[in-house]
Amino acid sequence: MPTTPAPTAAKTDTPPPRSVLRDTAFLRLWAGTTASGLATWALPFVLGLAVLHRDLGAAGLGLVLAARTAGFLAAVAVGGVLADRHSRRAVVLWSALAAAVAAPLLAAGLGRSLVLMTAAAALAGAGQGACRPAFQALTAETVAPERRQQANAAMTMAVRSATLTGPALTALLAAFLDVPTLLLGIGLLWLVAALVPGKGTAAANLAAEPTPPTPRAGFRAEFLEGIREARRHPWFLAGLAALVAVIALGYSATSVALPLISRDRYDTEWVLAAAMTAYTVGALGGALAIARWRPRSQGWAAFAGLAAYGVAPLSLMLPVHPVVVVAAYAVAGIGIELFNVPWFTATQREVAPEKLARVSSLDFLVSYGLAPVGLALIAPAIDAFGVTAVLAVCAAACLLVPAAAALVPTARHFARTAPATTD
């Protein structure tokens, strides 16, 4: 008697999402973000070359860099509100164009007018600050949710690669080009950032469709609305506090102490150069790992990565072999990206799309704004209490504040509701 073959189960598996690196819209956004990162990194380095060439004094360099920081902090909040009011693509365009215009003004003022250079640096910082939250929100519009972690990892890998190779490339270009020409090159990078990215796709931007026109609130009211949105996410506030502790204390302390210890304890510049290189290489490795790794408790894993920065000041406290210091910096670099990439991805996922740029601007405003304060206070603290005591306090803060942040409700998954699990 013939038998009827058993019915085969219908295939329900869906193919894995296509790599974000094959998406033309994302590649355009990636190119623009990378160009802005290169330009941001290159400016202080090129201005440092101007000091070496005696076109700019040390005091002038400090004034110009301070003006750039002030411009950034003033514009980042404005940029967040504008990017939620208007097209994120338009905000990227005009803010990057402002930074591009600043470059030839810097070149024109070099060796001639410190006032012009200071004003141009403030304009460059404003362009940089205004485009940061817009780029964050534009990523959410361009990339589908299931691919955003991969996209954010690709973004940070580009920035870290530029940090690793940029000094050598700039030094090579400086052998053939003068400082004004290098400044004009920075302007060209900002033009790429302004013109290359495209608009967010309709599919990715579906949740952010505009609502019917309503009377527009004032700027202050809209910024406060962004703060209220941030307060709806306890994990975000906890993460911001932990990030501030690591940047303002840990990163600032190691930035000041590492050159001193490299000189006084090890009597060589090799430790300084090797540790900073190891940090960047570690960050590249961390970004590569988190591009595909999806820990079950994403928030806890991210906070553990952030706390790993504490090994850097800890290694500087102890009379260890220099290889241990280099290894500690590599671990710190890995950990910082194990935090950064899920942090950006969760913000893009959890925050209301129409308020995303304002919440992102709050992130940049607090973290970048308090970093100079930390740097300004660390050196006097070392003079008053000694380098070991300051490093001990900073290492403890790097370890304990993220641990405390991980205990905040919703911090475990970087989400207001726990993700559904399947057996």
Q: Any overview of this molecule?
A:
There is one protein chain. By secondary structure, the chain is mainly α. The chain folds into 2 domains: 20-145 and 174-200, Growth Hormone, Chain: A, CATH 1.20.1250; 222-406, Growth Hormone, Chain: A (Up-down Bundle). Helix content is 74%, strand content 0%. It has 14 helices and no strands. Helix 2 (58-85) runs antiparallel to helix 3, helix 3 (88-109) packs antiparallel against helix 4 (114-142) and helix 9 runs parallel beside helix 12. The radius of gyration is 23 Å and the shape is globular. It starts with 23 loop residues before the first helix and ends in a 17-residue tail after the last helix. Residues 1-15 and 202-213 have low confidence and may be disordered.
Question: Which labels suit this protein?
Answer:
mainly alpha, Growth Hormone, Chain: A, 74% helix, disordered N terminus
Main β-sheet: number of strands, strand sense, barrel status?
none
Give the CATH topology of the largest domain: Growth Hormone, Chain: A
- The CATH architecture of the largest domain can be given as Up-down Bundle
- Count the E strands: 0
Distance between the termini: 40 Å
CATH homolog superfamily of the largest domain: MFS general substrate transporter like domains
- The proportion of residues forming helix, as a percent range, comes to over 70%
The helix/strand series, from N terminus to C terminus, equals HHHHHHHHHHHHHH
Outline: globular
Percentage of β-strand residues: under 5%
Quaternary structure annotation: single chain
- Structural class by sheet pairing and helices: mainly alpha
Low-confidence stretches: 1-15, 202-213
